[in-house]
Write a structure and sequence with these properties.
The protein is mainly β and about 500 residues long. It contains 1 helix and 37 strands. Strands 4, 5, 6, 8, 9 and 10 form a 6-stranded antiparallel sheet that branches. Strands 11, 32, 33, 34, 35 and 36 form a 6-stranded antiparallel sheet that branches. The protein is globular and about 75 Å long. The N terminus is likely disordered.
Length: about 500
């Protein structure tokens, strides 16, 4: 395809970046250090007020006027909490020097219908100061979210569990639960999608959510919306016709040149004869592109499955359905990750294959699984994976993935970690988790290695999640339900903070 005809993903619905762009002085949340001005007075709180947030009942806003302060943060805890219990804090927000007014601190992650006490802490060249105690009570959850329940057992690690789910027929919520199952944050989106699309927190601290009805092959509109934890829309990304926006993965990264890049999938349809596998002679078959975009939406890199893959590699159902008999895709990529050398790791579900792609040339560097597998599986009692999702490279170079297990007998989904020797071409199983009783999910699923060494496994189609230790024992399990019925959860992700990106 000549460069002039390569469709672009273009930013649309651009809004001004709101509050959270100011909510950081340093990645560790510490107050900035300013050189002593010599005669500057100690910081002083002139006035501070707190009000419930109008957009999210689990948030509050503190307005502070101060003198001789460089930055401010809020320290807050539930009223009646034990004095020894650790308080929550916002990051320090720069407020400048001298007399200032109207600086706003956004307080996030409150429990519903709970009384809180808060103080403003100022930091300046001549020390710190605190305000009097402020009081606010969070509101009750919206009616739709009261239909949602996360039932948990065990003790989960730190952080919040982020997912998207459809509630009420026309609303998709981005929701964050704590390890006790309490909703601590949310953002609604109007959508007719039967389930929320890919949701994550990006490294810039913002969130991205796919809003649309595509499952990766249908000719329907959809877009990724980027928004702040305060709920403010930043921009949206959507493919231009004749391509469509895939719902499986989007990353926003910053390169060594300091420039932003967006990595995602698009797809188009080509008339294809599928009579050999029971389909139509003129089927509108979908195939995908991995694209890397510059901040202005122009294409910097594209890898096109039509140019590198063949239909004989299509080994996983549906072929062409029962799920999508009229609009199948033959490759169905469902995750993007980055190897330690910066090249791409892509999971191709319908090929039962994980591939490494050169991020500059698009060449396939290796293939793991599927008909063109180049590796020998070692010490894996199930002999490999099938219909997999969420292929992730760990800091030690191992590959962690969610094995849906369509070809296992009996069918069984599991999390599995392989040590890859790309010279000897071996994939040695070094860790796995097989749930008892067996859980099998034909579609969706996600794995995430946490800072503690535990692994979060989301059995999305079953509405179940488990945090599992290196000892292969579950530490925490959760079941998500809407109206008392198991919820179809596309993915669940552990995040370290609502205020900024932190490894959980």
């Amino acid at each position: 395809m000549p460069p002039s005809s390569v469709p672009r993903l273009v930013p649309r619905c651009t809004f001004a970046l709101a509050l959270l762009g100011t909510l950081a002085c340093g990645d560790d949340g510490t107050a900035p250090v300013s050189p002593p001005p010599g005669t500057q007075a100690p910081p002083r709180v002139v006035a501070a007020t707190i009000t419930a947030d109008t957009a999210n009942v689990l948030a509050a806003r503190i307005t502070v006027t101060a003198e001789h302060a460089d930055s401010a943060r809020a320290i807050y805890r539930a009223a009646g909490a034990a004095a020894a219990a650790p308080a929550d804090t916002t990051p320090f927000t720069p407020i400048g020097t001298g007399a200032t007014g109207g600086t706003t601190l956004l307080v996030l992650g409150l429990r519903p219908a709970t009384a809180y006490q808060a103080q403003v802490e100022l930091a300046g060249a001549q020390g710190v100061a605190r305000s009097d105690t402020l009081a606010v009570t969070s509101g009750a959850l919206p009616d739709l979210l009261r239909r949602v329940a996360l039932t948990t057992t065990g003790t989960g690690g730190p952080g919040l569990n982020l997912t998207a789910l459809q509630v009420g027929g026309s609303t998709v919520y981005a929701v964050a639960f704590d390890s006790a199952g309490t909703i601590r944050w949310y953002r609604p989106f109007a959508s007719d999608a039967p389930v929320g699309g890919e949701l994550k927190q990006q490294r810039n601290g913002h969130f991205t959510l796919y809003v649309g009805t595509s499952t990766g092959s249908e000719p329907v509109p959809g877009a990724y919306v980027e928004f702040t934890a305060a709920g403010d829309s930043v921009r949206a990304f959507a493919a231009t016709p004749p391509r469509y926006t895939d719902d499986h993965e989007l990353w926003v990264t910053t390169g060594s040149d300091g420039q932003e890049r967006i990595h995602t999938f698009t797809y188009d349809h080509r008339t294809t004869d599928l009579t050999a596998i029971g389909g139509s002679a003129t089927a509108p078959l979908a195939g995908h592109q991995l694209v890397r975009l510059r901040a202005d939406g122009t294409t910097e890199f594209e890898w096109n499955a039509w140019d590198h893959l063949t239909l004989d590699e299509w080994i996983e159902p549906p072929k062409p359905g029962p799920v999508k008999p009229d609009q199948p895709d033959f490759d169905h990529p469902n995750s993007i990750d980055f190897d330690r050398d910066g090249n791409y790791i892509v999971s191709l579900r319908d090929l039962g294959q994980v591939v490494k792609l050169d991020a500059q040339t698009g060449a396939i560097l290796w293939r793991l699984g599927g008909l063109h597998n180049e590796f020998t599986f070692v010490d894996d009692p199930l002999g490999g994976f099938s219909a997999q999702h969420s292929a992730r490279i760990l800091p030690n170079g191992h590959l962690l993935l969610y094995d849906n297990g369509t070809r296992h007998q009996p069918q069984e989904s599991r999390a599995v970690e392989y040590a890859l020797d790309t010279v000897a071409k071996t994939a040695t199983l070094v860790w796995q988790f097989r749930h008892q009783p067996i859980i099998y999910t034909p579609f969706v699923g996600r794995v995430q290695r946490l800072a503690s060494g535990n692994t979060l496994i989301a059995y999305g189609q079953a509405g179940h999640a488990a945090e599992v230790g290196a000892d292969q024992l579950p530490k925490w399990e959760a079941d998500l339900a809407v109206d008392g019925k198991p919820a179809f959860v596309y993915r669940m992700v552990r995040i370290g903070s609502l205020y900024r990106y932190e490894e959980p």
